[in-house]
Amino acid sequence: MLVEITETTRPGDADLWRSFKGGNKEALAVIYRTYIRTLYNYGTRLTHDDGLVEDCIQDLFIEIWRNRAHLADTDSIKYYLFRALRRKIARRCNQLNKHVQHGELPGEYEGETVAPYESEWVLEEAASARKEHLQKAITHLTKRQKEILFLRYYENLSHQEIASIMVLTPQAVYNLIHKTLAALKQHLTYLISLLIGIGLHAGLLG
């Protein structure tokens, strides 16, 4: 017997996933509605081909529904879907000879560590009046830096989950976060200095 599931009566991820694996189409619909937008946002950080991202997402849901009985259990559906989508996009891009950010660059982040206060800095900046400047600074990041920023601070995934999704070691995740935050600060400082300079120049001319 299939039990009706809605967003207001939604169970936890583990129970929802088991219901989905058991053939409950309502569970599939809830999973789709819950994660379709965030999957698209994540996919477009891996490739600029929006059509490819949409195709991969549709293929992903068709594939997991067909193979639902054989899927492993999970207590984080978002993590499971992100990891599966990244692999699917990487395979599709390889087939089409398109570039996708994938894997670890040897030696790129050796010898760096991440400071504990820096994660708080990102959250504070995003919630402050400087949010607009932060968004502009983000546009200067590399694809890998944008991806890890999205996974860590927008989707709140753990370092271990990010390591698995991005095919990195946990230490490389820490180091990449450190490098990303350092780049953000550098660009943010430049933007603020530029705006101050423009303001002073306008004041002198006024």
TrEMBL record:
InterPro entries: RNA_pol_sigma-70-like (IPR039425), RNA_pol_sigma-70_dom (IPR014284), RNA_pol_sigma70_r2 (IPR007627), RNA_pol_sigma70_r4_t2 (IPR013249), RNA_pol_sigma_r2 (IPR013325), RNA_pol_sigma_r3/r4-like (IPR013324), WH-like_DNA-bd_sf (IPR036388). Residues 31-95 form the RNA polymerase sigma-70 region domain. The chain crosses the membrane at residues 188-205. The keyword Acetylation does not apply. The keyword Transcription applies. One of its GO terms (biological process) is DNA-templated transcription initiation. GO terms for molecular function: DNA binding; sigma factor activity. Keywords: Membrane, Sigma factor, Transcription, Transcription regulation, Transmembrane, Transmembrane helix. Residues 134-184 form the RNA polymerase sigma factor 70 region 4 type domain. Belongs to the sigma-70 factor family. ECF subfamily. PANTHER family: RNA POLYMERASE ECF-TYPE SIGMA FACTO (PTHR43133), RNA POLYMERASE SIGMA-70 FACTOR ECF SUBFAMILY (PTHR43133:SF46). This is RNA polymerase sigma factor RpoE. The lineage of its organism: Bacteria, Pseudomonadati, Bacteroidota, Sphingobacteriia, Sphingobacteriales.
